[in-house]
Amino acid sequence: MRRIIVGTVALIVVGLLGAYAILQSGLIPANADAKPSSLEQWVAETSLQATLSREAPTTPNPVALNNENLIKGIHLYTKNCVVCHGTAKGNASETPLAKGQYIKPPQLATDGVEDDTMGITFWKIKHGIRWTAMPAWNKTLTDHQIWTLALFLKHMDKLPMVVKGVWQQGPTDNLITNGARP
Ligand code: HEC
After folding, report:
1. So what's the pLDDT on residue 170?
2. DSSP letter at 141?
3. Mean pLDDT within 38-42
4. What is the mean pLDDT of the chain?
5. Hey, is 57 helix, strand or coil?
């Protein structure tokens, strides 16, 4: 019995030393200009899905669906999200900041989240997504503002005419869209 325990401990120590040696060798890539491996992707996605099913709210969105609230959502999005998720032009509006990220932020007018429940989108915006550049917005936005964003994202591909006009007008500040003023 003692020999088994000593053997197991020795194996674990050798394993840890080996892992440390590999880390120190620089063979595990630390660069951002690469594609995530399928193992990395699987771990991150499984963890995210499991967390969402435990924690994402299933209650209805407390912010009413009307033009005023959708426009409020567009303004919040334009101010905070365009720099990574693009404008109504979708993939064509990808900013330099978005292009260089390791986990690419979806350009939401092309790859939207209309199919997700608003509770799931609320959770992702509020808490952010670990191992990616998606920030947790609960430090800067209220729950009400986050629900307003979730409302807009849910309806992004079926906005009433007048709201669609505001969305397509896009941000006026080149700092956001081009990364530099002309
Ligand atoms: C600094 C970059 C950055 C900013 C700013 C940012 N995000 Fe993200 N966001 C990301 C990245 C990267 C992902 C992809 C994460 C992943 O693949 O799991 C993401 C994912 C998401 C998702 C999930 C998309 C999906 O397909 O499941 C939503 C919804 C989202 N962001 C909403 C927002 C909103 C709303 C804002 C503004 C309040 C915002 N994000 C601001 C980087 C950003």
Report:
1. 83
2. S
3. 95
4. 93
5. coil
In a domain, 161, yes or no: yes
Rg (CA), the chain: 21
Distance 134 CA to ligand 1 centre (A): 5
142 C-alpha to center of ligand 1: Å? 17
In a domain, 149, yes or no: yes
**Contact present, 150 and 121 (Cβ < 8 Å):** yes
User: Which residues form the pocket of ligand 1, taking CB atoms under 6 Å from any ligand atom?
Assistant: 77, 80-81, 83-85, 101, 103, 105-106, 113, 121, 124-125, 129, 132-135, 137, 149, 153
pLDDT at 19 (0 to 100): 92
pTM: 0.91
Domain that holds residue 69: 49-178
- Number of domains forming the structure of the chain: 1
Produce one character per residue of 98-109: b if its CB has 16 or more CB atoms within 10 Å, e if not: beeeebbbbbbb
Question: In this structure, which residue's CA is closest to atom 36 in ligand 1?
Answer: 81
Domain membership of residue 169 (yes or no) is yes
Q: Residue 121: CB partners within 8 Å, gap ≥ 6?
A: 113, 149, 150, 153, 154
Nearest atom, ligand 1, residue 150 CA: 35
Going by pLDDT thresholds of 50, 70 and 90, the confidence category of residue 96 is very high
Is the distance from CB of 76 to CB of 149 less than 8 angstroms? yes
Length of the chain as a residue count: 182
DSSP 35: P
